Amino acid sequence: MVRCLTVLILIFPAITISETLATRACNSSTENWQSRAGILISPIVSMLSVHEIEIYWNNVDLRPDEKIVLLDTGHPDTTPIVLYNVTSHGSSGFERTGVRAEFVPSSQLPFVRRCYKYSVARLTTTTGHLKEIDCLKTQPTWMKERQSILGARRISQIFLPGTHDSACYLENGKGNFITNSAITQDIDILGQLIHGVRYLDIRVGHYPLSDDIWWTNHGPLYRSVPLKTVLNQVKQFLNNTEEIVIMDIREFPIGFNDMATHRRLVSYLEDELQDYFLTNRYGWSATLNDIWSSGKRLIIGYENTQIVRKHASMWPCVRHQWGNVRTIENLYRHLNNIENNDSDYRVRPRSAMAELTASFVDVLSNRLGSLRDMAHRVNVNITNWYSTVWQYSANIVAVDFVRSTGIVDTAIKSNENRHLHCRYD
Q1: Is the dihedral of CA 32, 33, 37, 38 positive or negative?
Q2: How confident is the model at residue 16 (pLDDT cuts 50, 70, 90)?
């Protein structure tokens, strides 16, 4: 029997976003809020090392004779097969389907938008008529496709989907006690970018006695993949698309004891990425059209002011806005505060870090469960909040286990809504 997950869905008042450095006015009424239904891939791994398909819907007005269903549309020459019927008739909700998702590695993902096997649809129960709402898909070219509405904007004026600790991923397997507290994604960097992520949060450690001396880390205790693996996948994505990517290099949890180590890392980054990075002389005031016209579409942030001052290749990092909270209610309060009280909006991009944070005691006691468990409780709420009350204020939103959110589609639709409902001065 499929179990429905209780999700915290808050009711918001209609608001109008005002900014201290006002350059934008939006008619943010509830009529503009997104009406969505979509497919999520659960971060929870079963005994068979597979992920379950889940359905979310938000502000969907169903007729009495309609219901939401999950379809197998993987065979275009055959009639779609109904795999799951949503049991709730509420306008917003979330249900587990019991259907196991088929994993597609990034090496098999094309650099064009594509639907894969599963769709969500409205089913009219009296006639059997199906109307597709959305499909499980990739979004490798969503920015360039919308250059006409995004090109005149700065990075800080658009909604970008991002990932937290982007390089700490495990594509197969359940993991163990250590990885349960370290793994934040279930697809590699290339897969994240093809699915629509445009902000990467990369933590780098220095291991001078290793064959690869630069690694990605989650804190000082967990070493994930060589930095070269990340850079190669970023280059592969940029070579095959015209998208803009921000990659922040930050935290340096191990092996950075002097400035000489930082300079060696920057030299390595410059050698590897010399054909890709935009110099910081453009500054954060550059528009997306400025970036596209430059021929360079990678912005490398570096979390060290001395390095940024001396190396044109390195930009000031995106400003992380951490809540350091352990409940969904407190995460909502934190995000609501930053989305309504951000005074640095015009100058520097910022990233709402949309995840729970476990303390050392929480990890030892397993009070909050694994990072997968925490993401499972939070992510559908992040999707719903940012598709409604914060769709006009959001800048970068960084999440754990990005496929268990609808943040990419939410960002795309929010950018389109800003074009329709916001005025920029």
Answers
A1: positive
A2: very low
Residue 309: CB atoms within 10 Å:
11
187, 169, 188: which is closest to 179 by C-alpha?
Answer: 169
Whether 293 contacts 241, CB under 8 Å: no
The tokens for 329 are 């209610």
Q: DSSP characters for 309-374?
A: HH-TT-BPPPEEE----SSHHHHHHHHHHHHH--TTTTTS-EEEE-S----HHHHHHTSS--HHHH
The Cα 262–Cα 55 span in angstroms is 45
**Sheet architecture: strand order including 36-45:** 36-45, 51-58, 93-101
Q: Which two tokens stand for residue 393?
A: 């204020």
CB 194 within 8 A of CB 161: no
Claim: this prediction has a pTM higher than 0.90? yes
pLDDT at 25: 80
CB 272 within 8 A of CB 264: no
At residue 81, φ and ψ (nearest 5 deg) are -105, 130
- Residues sharing a CB contact under 8 Å with residue 423, sequence separation 6 or more, in sequence order: 24, 25, 26
Position 14 pLDDT exceeds 60: no
Distance CA 183, CA 7 (A): 23
143: nearest Cα among 297, 269, 23 = 297
